[in-house]
Amino acid sequence: MQNRRTHPNRLLASIFFLTGLILSGCVHPVQTDRHKAPFRAASSPAAEEFPAAPMLRLETGMHTAPILRIDVDRDQRFLVSGSEDKTVRIWEATTGRLLRTLRVPLGEGTLGKVSGVAISPDGASVAAGGYTGYIKKGGYEIYIYGRESGEIRHVIGDLPNVIQHLKFSPDGRYLAATLWGSNGLRVYETTNYKQIAADTHYGRGSFWVDFDSSGRLVTTCSDGNIRLYGSDFRLIQKRPAPGGKFPFGAAFSPDGRQIAVGYEDSTRVDVLSAETLELRFSADTADVNNGNLFTVAWSQDGRFLFAAGRYTREGFNFIRRWSETGRGGFTEFELTHSTVFGLKSLSTGGLAVGAADLLAVLSADGKPLWQQRSISADFREHAIRLSPNGDTVQFGYELGGKRPARFSLTAWQLELDPAADSRLAGPLTTAPGLVITDWGWKFNPKLNGTSLALPQHERSCSLSIAPDKKRFLLGTYLSLRLFDATGKPLWELAVPSVAWSVNISGDGRLAVAGLGDGTLRWYRMADGKELLALFPHRDGKRWVAWTPQGFYQASAGAEDLIGWHLNQGSQKAPDFYSASRFRSTYYRPDVIDRVLATMDEAVALQQANAEAGRKQVAEVSVRDKLPPVAAILSPADGSEVSASLVKMRYSVRSPEPLTGLKVLVEGRPVAVEGIGKTSKESGELSIPIPSRDCEVSVIAENRHATSEPATIRLRWKGTASKDEFEIKPKLYVLAVGVSTYQDADLRLDLAAKDALDFGAAWNDQRGRLYSGVEVRTLTDAQATKGNILDGLEWVQRQMTAHDVAVMFFAGHGINDPTGVFYFLPVDADLEKLKRTGISQSDITSTVANIAGKVLVFMDACHSGNLTGKLKRRGVVVVTSVINELASAENGAVVFSSATGRQYALENVEWGNGAFTKALVEGIRGKADFKSTGRITVNMLDLYVSERVKELTQGQQTPTTAKPPNVPDFPVALLR
């Protein structure tokens, strides 16, 4: 075993060995040399401090890399998961709702990957460790977080190697940790997290530790031994594991009499005496002929033994359950296609499961009560395809290329099940004179029979030969590597995740890699410089593209799939800010448009600024424009309340003086006494809430931006009020449609009729869902800028917290040179846009100040002066205004007629634009798929999406963006 004290950057913890095998989608025999030396790390920084510069990271609401460890608290309220993606997530165990994301201090390469996580029995503390810390700074570290606050309370430092496993004792008095290398076991007292015991006489890495109810400990180690410790943490027994050389998982039975053990290198599951460590029996695994069952758990009543791991059959990784405490027959649960790393039994007889790409809770009969699956594309076992210049890429969301999709950077369009396109080509893997072998998930790739210069233990995963046949690109578990035709290395580049698929554009300028985190990344072939990254969400609708400096373009509702991670040293929890907090600086579709053509991000920015007339200013750091960070101190998330006024204590941390504070209930602002006068960084407020379960959020503002919402869920104690819509709110509709523009070149056919028909559809709801419906329709000559602004003011003035506002805009939209959106009134003058157009801020400021629920329907992608029966309605980019309206602080649900650079279509035979026709049909009943008698936002979204695609034969794809803190709600009743 190499010592990481001298070479922390050259080694990789065993977590990569474990996950690397499995994520290949194949079963491979265990290579014993991995237990002599772990993998080499991918160019981790040599500095002694965590990077201070902001780092752009994915944030999808789910892990984007394998989940390596899970744990639950004593009362099974909380489930925690730790992942290679350098996050720990806390979930509500009964529902699967994400409660909080804990972030560890991190850097490039392996620094920050989490391989150990535990929650204290009382659920108050969460411990996390892994490849956490710098050896030169004093060693690896274990972070102890307050679960409720998310803050780091304690740091256990000076650990000599990577932390593999963490476990709290059942009484919460102790925390045990096992380490990689020959560094063994550490035990800490949780009152002050001082070390009280250690055993460093281990031959290799220790993967697992478990307590029994009396405080004894058992550990496994890849030196082949099982070790048993007394409640005083002194070694009682040490025996070679009977079933394999590399024992992995271990678990005491509930009565403390037996210990179950699973193995990395064997399909055995053994049950040992908890007194002598002698073999009592082996569970029935006679039919298991591949992989392993290295993760084990007992049911809480001791009747059943569970095990899972890399064992697969027919493409599934099964969880096996044996009856009679493991001696009896077995049942198998089919759940996932990836390795199962964690099993935790529950008092219900069910099971919490952590797999590489899935988190779930199962009932006693193995049925999922809930599951959170990865939303990343899986690039394993298929080749991505590229257009000749690299601006269009085709891939599959599922393993092996299933569920194909295509993304066009010129059209800003993500398309599912695309038609065949002969222009797109897969990677070239054979060429005269270039015989490249052993590159498919192998350690020793060869060129013409000669081994290539790869570091020991770095697996190659993918290959693409350049069109000129003079170079070839290897994607590995850790890097991209370009070689010339003789095998000479030209450049190498560390990548954030395994490069499952690589390809080179037909013009030879660009390399594209499909990575294990679900991103596609474009690189300059000349020197390996990264130019662009794309994350296509698994829903097939949302996507975000960004440059290394953070300039981005995103589809509606997708910009917060990325954000900025800011370390605060090693003693404090890092901060994280969604990309939308910096929209004014970094939302730059014009830069994204140019970066592949220019092959240089700086040049693309310069050209975009010049064309838009933007001033060339010095680069602004994210740290110079930080928004506040808000927190709700009390009541705690999930608290029960029984009064209509809840006292809430909050705190705000801000680098700049506060300029405002806003309280939201169910995503909409509420009037709170004194809040308009306050800019305090802490205080107590009395919040009016409905007599039912609800979410309350606080948002703070400084001169730069608004904070992320601090949100808690409150549970109503006692009899809840009726559904809020049974109270029958009022509905206020502002419908604007312009066909006959004063500028004849802008005239349309059906936009004004769209507004009339849309308004009429809501009149049918009077006396049904709403006690009253007021519709103000502005068409053609009425739709002046003044009248539209008056209409916006009318909606804002009429609304109460119980009401619903609907705004509809049909006509021309336009972006100014800086990308700001304007809706064009009938009297718009394109030469005087600011004075005559309805600006993005006119709409968003109205929405932000409306008390009740708000829906905005935007059909502003119209293009006039076109002929033909089927008229195109536009290319205008409305993404910016959609995302701003649907942000947490503004809280509107936004429906848009088209995505990307699509045209919105109208047809005289329909009598409307496709979008309006689908909306009217949906509101009047066709969106009620399940015949429930009511139509919700989500139901209307689904109907409109499918109906518009049907009407336009796939030429137009509407989109909907909904704030994360606004729940689904009904918009129409049919009876």
Tell me about this structure.
- This protein is mainly beta and 975 residues long.
- Among the domains are: 385-624, Lipocalin; 627-716, Immunoglobulins (Immunoglobulin-like); 729-973, Rossmann fold, CATH 3.40.50.1460.
- The chain is built from eleven helices and 72 strands.
- The strands form 18 sheets. The chain has a six-stranded antiparallel beta sheet with strand order 43-44-45-46-47-48, with helices on one face. A six-stranded mixed beta sheet has the order 60-59-61-65-67-71, with helices on both faces. Strands 6, 7, 8, 9 and 10 form a five-stranded antiparallel beta sheet that branches.
List keywords for this structure.
975 residues; mainly beta; Lipocalin; Immunoglobulin-like; Rossmann fold; six-stranded mixed sheet; 11 helices; globular; disordered N terminus
Give me the secondary-structure topology.
Elements: H1 14-23, E1 55-58, E2 67-72, E3 78-83, E4 87-92, E5 98-103, E6 114-119, E7 125-130, E8 133-134, E9 139-146, E10 152-159, E11 163-168, E12 174-179, E13 185-189, E14 194-199, E15 208-211, E16 217-220, E17 225-229, E18 235-240, E19 247-252, E20 258-263, E21 269-273, E22 279-282, E23 295-298, E24 305-308, E25 312-313, E26 316-322, E27 330-336, E28 340-345, E29 351-355, E30 358-362, E31 368-373, E32 385-386, E33 392-396, E34 404-408, E35 413-416, E36 436-437, E37 446-447, E38 450-451, E39 460-465, E40 471-476, E41 479-484, E42 489-494, E43 499-504, E44 510-515, E45 520-524, E46 530-536, E47 543-546, E48 552-554, E49 562-566, E50 575-578, H2 583-586, H3 589-598, H4 601-612, E51 629-634, E52 640-641, E53 645-653, E54 658-665, E55 668-669, E56 682-688, E57 694-702, E58 710-716, E59 730-737, H5 751-763, E60 772-779, H6 785-798, E61 804-810, E62 813-815, E63 821-823, H7 833-836, E64 838-839, H8 840-848, E65 853-859, E66 870-872, H9 879-885, E67 893-896, E68 905-907, E69 912-913, H10 914-926, E70 934-936, ...
Helix pairs in contact: 3-4, 5-10, 6-8, 10-11
